[in-house]
Design goal:
The protein is built from 37 helices and 47 strands. The protein is an alpha+beta fold and 1328 residues long. The chain has a 25-stranded antiparallel beta sheet that branches. Strands 1, 2, 3, 4, 5, 6, 7, 8, 9, 12, 13, 14 and 15 form a 13-stranded antiparallel beta sheet that branches. Strands 11, 16, 17, 18, 19, 20 and 21 form a seven-stranded antiparallel beta sheet that branches. Helix 5 crosses helix 7, helix 14 runs parallel beside helix 17 and helix 19 runs antiparallel to helix 20. The radius of gyration is 40 Å and the shape is globular. One of its GO terms (molecular function) is nutrient reservoir activity.
Length: 1328
């Protein structure tokens, strides 16, 4: 036993004496074999992958204490683009040759105690090559502890400072030390990464707690041998995996793998010698970003002469997008943006000077430049506006987009700040507002990228705010608050608090809109520091001395801070004794809507709201929409990690009929991120304050009196105050306010002359003159709709990125020409209505709009030399040509529109989506390889182990699965009469045979194409729609309209034969069996519904209390009696108007339909007859309507051959039911199509459950099988009783609360009366 203890003691002492620092002796050169492999794709074999491989000898030499040289010998680059694993790597000979000189330059670095320090290299070594060396040095980065075998630390590396776990083992048998370290790249103290287009995306941590879309990890394994003064690294292997899916990794994900091996070969005596050049400090082990930021991953460009290439692409875009958009126009537009990013300010100015006077080229440049997103472009736009080379609309459009797209660095912020205080900008309020809002957004983006951004960036805004507050400059204060709201910096809280009501006495005296702006300015601050904003918002919300609108806005801000259960419960307790019903209604509805939220980031708030709602009175739920409301709805699908939410806030005022404010917001969730995509708000503060000072604010009068007084107050708009806006609106994109408008008395006074003065007449005259001469317009609009990128280094020092691009180009060609007979006079002011009636106007217009859209999603390697990635590409292209001719002969009452034939392309719509792997290098563009990610008819081999529990012994089997053949279908449909054939061609091939998951259904190749062509029948010359009004209507009918009269012998014979035919058809049709009546839960009517029992409804429904009841039978007989007097009104009078829709064919065969409208004034009867104009086609639709009295109307619609196949009768009446005004609608059917009855029976099965959820009582009774009756009565102007009788059941609900009062008196008369002066004012303005 003592011997054993002695041996263990000796072993332990020996182990402790080993120095774990990697050793590289000064007089030796260590030779290693290095290989790095990067592959991207899906983990399943048999699918395509793309990647690169680097292999080389690596020489390490110590040149001084802690100073080493590393040199690559015989470096080789390989490309991979094929089916994994059967296809081989391909040598990239040209690229290797081009980079060989750089790759073999020795790099100097500091190395002490296993830690890499500074790195040095000559200036001729590019950042890409430097990063490849960093990838090798990263393997040497070892923080080994002598006293611990298992430990964790934050370790610096190529990818930043990340959480790293070490495990050290000793193999005594082989005298090896085995070190394993793993890095969790999702938990880094300092991660090297570049995000583009993600500045306003919020990380939804709760969304990724259960499921994740991105998993990143790296594992390092070392085998070391003890040496004289340390250890020798004999072998090192690195494996790094990035697994990403936009949906959820459980359902499949794409992976990007990086593998490195460093194997010791030998030691040499020949040292590595540095080249004769200055070795400059090139940073540390951390990755250095180079040109990959400017290099888009969707195309690899070799930029040799940027200005010349820009001009070439610009000319290509202009030339190929004139008549219609080119297929690859979006990709070319992205190429133009990429080239402009490389160009210098001098280059761009030279190109602008060349093309600024050519409108088409100028427009393309102004669309592309803002999307470049560099400080150079912001400076360019600024200089050109100050030099009067840009119009105000051009400048605003360019600047808004440029500030949103630009990289927010200190240079861009300073440019924007200087622009905001420029004297020329100050003279144009609209421009200054855009610049100031953009300034706030730039600060917000910068502080997202640099969390500890300096407060000094806000100093100019704070100084402007201090001056505005001192001068009580209300418009300036409001603007500054919006800017601070965009910036969202906690340091602005002190300035904002000076303007918050309730916290400062002076702030309470400010206008309501300023108080509201001050509260809204807290919203973006709340996203960063919710605990700072919550007490402020709660204090304002509970301060009853403040205006209700201010308190309700504070409620919005409070719940955006995601308050705790305690805070929400405290609010609920205060609301129980809240005297203001608008505040109580708003807060209650907001809390209640939050209880239904399913988004993960709002789960805690939803739980808090569910608790708080129990403290509040349910009476608040029954308040009408007259009171303020908040509504939030959302949908979130956890397996796909996608969702959307919408919020709407309506802040009402007790004094007027107009809401004080309406706000709507949309929020989106995707792949663990969330963003407030869009928000719009409208306020009517000035109008409200003016109305509050008018008699309309009298609370003692009824609502209709308020309406009349409000209308009268609005007619006297000139008396409204000039020092405040009458209304305002704002728009936010991604949480940033990008535009707002204030409408005040001055704006109205300036707008009225523009609308009623001589300028509109001049514009009308010029437009009419241009129409007569002919107008030809060609327009193209490009747009970079999305550019989202995340670039980060791999362990091998090669950059990888996830990218999403969407670009679109729309183009249109429009030709319009008008012929006016007689010609219009030169003085349009003398043109009278009588002259207009005698004018014949003919218009011919042809348009050819087209759209091309391309979307790219990329995962892979993107450098200036080589790209290897997995890509998803979507394309949409549509062309919809059209040509119409219109004519208006006002004197003759004839109006005609014709659709003329046009040349149609082979496909009017073409949509495709494909996924593939690609690899390409800059030295050999022709060798680009693109391989479909899911090969068609591929054979998948899966190695499936079979359990020994089944077979009794271990074995495995190769299971071969063959991908199904691609789906290819074509569906064609010929439109009757006009002989136009439409075809849809569908092609689809996916990877669902591998796994039944959403991602695998998406992968593959899918396309849909739509085509329109002429059919096989006679050609159609044109389609006509003609309307004839007046006595000539009968002349325009192409086929005489006749209705069969049952009273004549001929009519009886015809109808008898027709019925025989219809009965025979009915017998041949399948008969649907009646479903047996099943017992179900019967809810008896409540006692309150007894006053509206069915017997009483039939008994008493009269227009006035003294009038007698009229039964249903008498109503029907009245309609029948009138029809018996004249079956067809056209026999006695011509049609009032006629409508003819027809297709004019080359064989002159009549095809189409015509409508004749007839009116008999003596019986108040209207008759509409729709009939086919085709020969031997007796299909008709007959609609008969009769106004039996002021309170009763009956209509019958019949259709089929001679209107005899189907018929429906509808009756509506209004009057008094018992003591209440009421209305009733009855629908009876004699015969209806079987398909209607089939679906009606299916629908009726769901009615009981829907009725119960809606609060209706249900009673099972055998009502008429061919009748539906709906009766509604008004016990008061704010409540409604409803009873509905349908076959087999009766539904009823009493005392339904209405949001607004209905202006009907108990005797059935209207309680509304519009004053004569208001009517006169409306008539005068309409006449003007």
């Amino acid at each position: 036993m003592r011997a054993v203890v002695l041996v263990l003691t000796v072993a332990l002492v020996a182990c402790q004496q080993i120095n774990l620092v990697p050793e590289f002796a000064v007089d030796k050169t260590y030779v290693y074999k290095y290989e790095a492999l990067l592959l991207g794709g899906l983990p399943q074999e048999g699918l395509a992958r793309a990647g690169i491989k680097v292999s080389s000898k690596v020489l390490l030499t110590a040149v001084a204490e802690n100073i080493f040289l590393i040199k690559l010998v015989d470096p080789l680059l390989f490309e991979y683009g094929g089916i994994w694993p059967k296809d081989p790597f391909v040598p990239s000979t040209k690229l290797t040759t081009a980079l060989a000189a750089q790759l073999q330059i020795p790099i100097k670095f500091e190395y002490a105690n296993g830690v890499v320090g500074k790195v040095f290299a000559p200036a001729g070594v590019s950042p890409t090559v430097m990063n490849l060396h960093r990838g090798i040095l990263n393997i040497l980065q070892l923080n080994l502890k002598k006293t611990q075998n298992v430990y964790e630390l934050q370790e610096a590396g190529t990818q930043g400072v990340c959480r790293t776990q070490y495990v050290i083992n000793e193999d005594l048998k082989d005298n090896h030390i085995i070190v394993t370290k793993s890095k969790d790249l999702s938990h880094c103290h300092e991660r090297i990464m570049k995000d583009i287009g993600l500045a306003y995306a919020e990380r939804c941590a709760e969304c990724t707690q259960r499921v994740k879309s991105l998993i990143e990890t790296a594992s390092y394994n070392y085998i070391m041998k003890p040496a004289a003064t340390g250890v020798l690294i004999t072998e090192a292997t690195v494996k790094e995996v990035h697994q990403f899916s936009p949906l959820n990794e459980i359902h499949g994900a794409a992976i990007m793998e990086a593998k490195q091996t460093l194997t010791f070969v030998e030691m040499e005596k020949t040292p590595v010698v540095p080249i004769k050049a200055d070795y400059l400090h090139r940073g540390s082990l951390q990755y250095e970003f180079g040109s990959e930021i400017l290099q888009t991953p969707i195309q690899l460009l070799k930029i040799s002469d940027a200005p010349a290439q820009i001009i070439e692409v610009l000319k290509h875009l202009v030339a190929n997008n004139m008549a219609m958009v080119h297929d690859d126009a979006p990709l070319k537009f992205v190429q133009l943006i990429q080239l402009l990013r490389v160009a210098t300010l001098e280059n761009i100015e030279a190109i602008w000077a060349q093309f600024k006077d050519q409108p088409i080229y100028r427009r393309w440049l102004l669309e592309a430049l803002p999307a470049v997103g560099t400080p150079v472009i912001v400076k360019f736009i600024k200089e050109k506006f100050l030099a009067h080379e840009l119009t105000i609309p051009e400048f605003i459009q360019a600047l808004v987009m440029a500030l949103q797209m630009a990289t927010s660095d200190l240079e861009t912020i300073q440019l924007t700040a200087s622009l905001a205080v420029h004297e020329k900008i100050a003279t144009i309020p609209a421009v200054r507002e855009v610049v100031m809002l953009g300034y706030g957004s730039m600060i917000a983006k910068h502080c997202i990228a640099v969390p500890n951004c300096p407060v000094e960036l806000l100093r100019p805004i704070h100084e402007i705010a201090a001056n505005a507050i001192a001068k009580n400059d209300i418009p300036e204060i409001s603007l500054v608050l919006k800017v601070l709201g965009n910036a969202g910096h906690p340091a602005s809280l002190k300035t904002i608090m000076k303007l918050l009501p309730g916290l400062r006495t002076a702030a309470t005296t400010l206008p309501i809109r300023v108080q509201v702006d001050a509260i809204l300015a807290l919203r973006n601050i709340a996203k960063k520091e919710p605990k700072l904003v919550q007490p402020l918002a709660l204090q304002i919300l509970l301060d009853r001395a403040l205006h209700p609108e201010v308190r309700m806005v504070a409620c919005i801000v409070l719940f955006e801070t995601k308050p705790s259960v305690a805070l929400v419960s405290s609010l609920a307790g205060a609301l129980r004794i809240e005297p203001n019903m608008h505040v109580a209604s708003f807060a209650y509805s907001h809390i209640k809507s939050l209880t239904r939220i399913t988004a993960p980031d709002m789960a805690a708030v939803a739980g808090a709201a569910s608790v708080a709602i129990k403290f509040l009175s349910p009476k608040l739920d029954r308040l009408s929409f007259h009171f303020s409301r908040a509504l939030t709805l959302d949908i979130y699908h956890t397996p796909l990690m996608i969702g959307a939410a919408g919020s709407a806030y309506m802040i009402n005022d007790a004094a007027t009929i107009l809401p004080r404010a309406v706000v709507a917001k949309a929020r989106a969730y995707l792949a663990g991120a969330a963003s407030d995509v869009f928000e719009i708000g409208v306020r009517t503060e000035g109008i409200q304050e003016a109305l509050l000072q008018s008699p309309a604010a009298d609370e003692s009068v009824d609502r209709m009196t308020k309406v009349k007084r409000t209308l009268r107050a609005l007619t006297n708009w000139k008396a409204l105050p000039t020092n405040q806006p009458l209304a305002s609106a704002y728009v936010k994109l991604f949480g940033q306010e990008v535009a707002f408008v204030n409408i005040d008395k001055t704006v109205i006074e300036q707008a009225i002359p523009l609308a009623t003065g001589p300028k509109p007449r001049e514009l009308l005259k010029e437009a009419l003159k241009a129409l007569q001469e002919g107008i030809a317009v060609q327009y193209a609009k490009p747009l970079l709709a999305a550019e989202v990128r995340r670039i980060f280094p791999t362990a091998a020092g090669v950059p990888m990125e996830f990218s999403f691009y969407t670009a679109a180009v729309a183009a249109a060609t429009v030709n319009v020409k008008a012929t006016i007979t007689p010609p219009l006079p030169d003085q349009l002011e003398t043109f009278t209505l009588e002259q207009l009636k005698r004018t014949d106007v003919q218009l011919v217009a042809e348009a050819r709009p087209s759209l091309a859209l391309q979307t790219f999603a990329v995962m892979g390697i993107n450098t200036a030399f080589i790209q290897a990635a997995v890509m998803a590409k979507g394309k949409i292209r549509t062309i919809l040509p059209g040509k119409i001719a219109a004519r208006a002969d006002i004197l003759k009452g004839n109006y005609k529109v014709e659709a003329l034939p046009v040349e149609v392309p082979e496909h009017i719509a073409d949509m495709s989506f494909e996924t593939f792997a690609l690899v390409r290098n800059i030295e050999n563009p022709a060798a680009e390889r693109i391989v479909p990610l899911v090969p068609e008819l591929s054979v998948q081999n899966y190695h499936t182990p079979i359990s020994s529990e089944i077979t009794g012994y271990d074995m495995s089997a190769e299971v071969s699965l063959r991908a199904p053949a691609p789906l290819h279908k074509t569906l064609c449909l010929v439109v009757p009469y006009i002989e136009i054939k439409g075809c849809v061609e569908v092609h689809s091939h996916n990877a669902a045979f591998i796994k039944n998951a959403t991602l695998f259904y998406i992968l593959g190749k899918h396309s849909v194409r739509a085509a329109v062509a002429r059919g096989d029948g006679p050609a159609v010359e044109r389609l006509e729609l003609e309307v004839q009004v007046g006595p000539r209507a009968a002349e325009r009918l192409l086929k005489q309209i006749n209705l069969v009269d049952e009273e004549t012998p001929e009519g009886k014979t015809i109808l008898m034969k027709l019925r025989e035919i219809l009965n025979a058809e009915a017998k041949n049709a399948p008969v649907s069996s009646k479903s047996s009546s099943s017992s179900s839960r019967i809810i008896s009517s409540s006692s309150s519904s007894s006053s509206m029992s069915s017997s009483r409804l039939t008994e008493y429904m009269a227009p006035h209390r003294a009038s007698k009841a009229v039964s249903s039978g008498s109503k029907a007989s009245s309609l029948e009696a009138i029809q018996k007097q004249a079956k067809f009104l056209g026999n006695a009078a011509p049609p009032v108007f006629a409508v003819i829709a027809r297709a004019v064919r080359v064989d002159h065969k009549l095809l189409g339909y015509q409508l004749g409208a007839y009116f008999d004034k003596s019986t108040a009867r209207v008759q509409l007859i729709v009939s086919s104009i085709a020969e031997n086609d007796n299909m008709k639709i007959c609609a008969d309507g009769v106004l039996l009295s002021k309170h009763k109307v009956t209509a019958k619609v019949a259709w089929g051959p001679e209107c005899q196949q189907y018929a429906v009768i509808a009756k509506a009446e209004a009057g008094v039911l018992g003591e209440f005004p009421a209305a009733r609608l009855e629908v009876e059917w004699e015969r209806i199509p079987m398909i209607v009855t089939t679906y009606a029976k299916k629908l009726s099965k769901h009615i009981p459950m829907a009725a119960l959820k809606a609060g209706f009582n249900l009673e099972r009774v055998m009502n008429s099988e061919k009748e539906i009756e709906l009766t509604a009565a008004l016990p008061t102007q704010r409540t409604l009783n409803v009873i509905a009788r349908i076959p087999q059941m009766t539904l009823s609900r009493m005392a339904i609360h209405l949001p607004y009062a209905v202006p009907i008196n108990p005797d059935g008369t209207l309680s509304i009366h519009i004053d004569e002066d208001i009517l006169t004012w409306l008539k005068n303005h309409m006449k003007e």
